[in-house]
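Sequence in, structure out.
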Amino acid sequence: MAVMPSLDPRARSVLRALIAQYVRDGEPVGSRTLAKHSGLDVSPATIRNIMSDMEELGLLAAPHASAGRIPTAQGYRVFVDSLLQIKPISKALLQDMRGRLPAGSSTQSLLGNVSELLSAMSHFVGVVTVPAREQFAFRHIDFVALDGSRLLVILVFADNEVQNRIIVTRRPYGSSELEQIANFLNSHFAGRTLRDIRMAL
């Protein structure tokens, strides 16, 4: 297994903010955007230097010479392994969640319950929607190997919607294989709907 790059606290903060911005907008992220919207107390020039260092480490990539940066599969891997902060759920909260999301609920009822639960847990308005993704053109796909045969699939649609899915494959795939598959799908099917892609395959 490849050794993950070691990042200092400032670089970790920049990577976390960049991935959050990219997942939210689906567009390459520039240093000025991060400095303005991420809440980082760092100048655009400093962020630009940090992003350049992370690009050399293989954590970020520039899709175009004049564009911002996007996270690579290795960048997502570092994020999942060391940056994503998952807080344990108390037994009382877990029991409450189970009570609010009973098995066998209709889709409409389940969405309503999830919205209320998100609102109660986050103290913000909870909104849950299920768009018909089949109708939207797919723009970009990335794969991140997790453990065993599990993969994190990151789909960016033409309307900038970003969806993540964890799938289980028949066998483990290496990072080079996943990169080849992603490159093939991005080069041959970008701009087409998921329904069209399924028919073509």
